[in-house]
Amino acid sequence: MSFSSFIPPQRTLMGPGPSDISPQVLSAIARPTIGHLDPEFIKMMDEVKSLLQYAFQTKNEITMAVSAPGSAGMETCFVNLVEPGEKVIVCINGVFGTRMKENVERVGAEAIVVEGEWGRAINPAQLEQTLLKHQDARFVAFVHAETSTGALSDAKALCSIAKQHNCLTIVDAVTSLGGVELRVDDWQIDAIYSGSQKCLSCVPGLSPVSFSPTAVDKIKQRKSKVQSWFLDQSLVMDYWANNAGGKRSYHHTAPVNSLYALHESLLHLYNEGLENAWQRHKDQHDKLAAGLSELYIEFIVPKKERLPQLNAVYIPKGVDDAKVRSYLLNEYNLEIGAGLGNFAGKAWRIGLMGYSAKNENVLLCISALKDALTQ
Ligand SMILES: *Cc1c(COP(=O)(O)O)cnc(C)c1O
């Protein structure tokens, strides 16, 4: 057998993630590896924390990146906060909501489902009714930006209802962070997780998370140990916590080079400005929507509930889903996403995430789709 280096093709990534990565972020990962307890590295980690606090719009002391993808961030929130027997209201309007329910059940807690429509935002009135029926619920969990359907829920409204019923809030912001308005402190979000490879346009494999002081208290009052040793925040916090003169202790080896990349991508977001980044996603979405409508391609989600960074559209009648996607990949090096869950085979998901949300990509996508459909 003979082997040679793997040289990946140059693609344009317009699916549900990973998104395109800028040359600066990519080159950051190739910088020299240093020890994860090296004082210089720790300085950088402190900046990652501050930059994440900015991205999340929070002052939460416990704000960090879990050394694993978004799914691990999801699991981190559930296994640390929720104890066996507790009641969690889970709003489900797509694939990632069903995973939240799965997490709740594996913790040994009880999931009460607010059944939303796929392709629509979660209805706040429906959450309110469910909370009235389940006064003993401790948590409300929902997905801010449902990547499987392209729907954006009103996180502010949902959290405000949850708080009126004395619940802690757990929010999936894997696709929303950096792409649409998100304000952790103002909206009273207690636990939130995201992913590095969506609107942050960083390499996959890191999951930014943040816990409010209320959430930290809840974790400290646990009666039982967190069943996952790796994701147990009381252990990891010792590494990330930065009390003046505080000594960082070893828990696991941080993914040093990936964290250089995260630092670089967060720096770009900081320099652009959050509001500007949100606006850029919206502007590019409007351009894409105009181009798609000329091709008679229709959106799944009503206009007011659409995610700018994830455009879920119906595959036109008589068009072969797989053929079009492989034509785009082979002829244009362009990746768009297939439908997921209830939308498998029925939808395409066109991502405009982070560095991918730019004029060149929108133009390429529209002209390549036009060519593919003509062929
Ligand atoms: C991508 C995604 C996840 C999972 O993230 P991974 O990095 O793939 O583990 C979770 N929730 C939502 C909404 C996502 O879009």
Structure explained in plain terms:
There is one protein chain. The protein has 375 residues and is of the alpha/beta class. It has 2 domains: 12-18 and 274-374, Aspartate Aminotransferase, domain 1; 23-270, Type I PLP-dependent aspartate aminotransferase-like (Major domain) (Aspartate Aminotransferase, domain 2, 3-Layer(aba) Sandwich), CATH 3.40.640. It is 40% helix and 15% strand. It contains 12 helices and 13 strands. Strand 12 (334-338) and strand 13 form a beta hairpin. The chain is globular, with a radius of gyration of 21 Å. The structure holds pyridoxal-5'-phosphate. Pyridoxal-5'-phosphate (PLP) is lined by residues 17, 69-71, 74, 96, 143, 147, 172, 174-175, 195, 204.
Pattern of helices and strands: EHHEHEHEHEEEHEEEHHHHEHEEH
**Annotated CATH homologous superfamily of the largest domain:** Type I PLP-dependent aspartate aminotransferase-like (Major domain)
Largest sheet, in brief, is:
7 strands, mixed
Q: Regarding CATH, which class of the largest domain?
A: Alpha Beta
- Count of helix runs: 12
Number of domains: 2
Structural class: alpha/beta
Average pLDDT figure: 96
Low-confidence stretches: none
| Shape verdict | globular
Strand order of the largest sheet: 2-10-9-8-5-3-4
E-strand count? 13
Looking at the structure, the CATH topology of the largest domain is: Aspartate Aminotransferase, domain 2
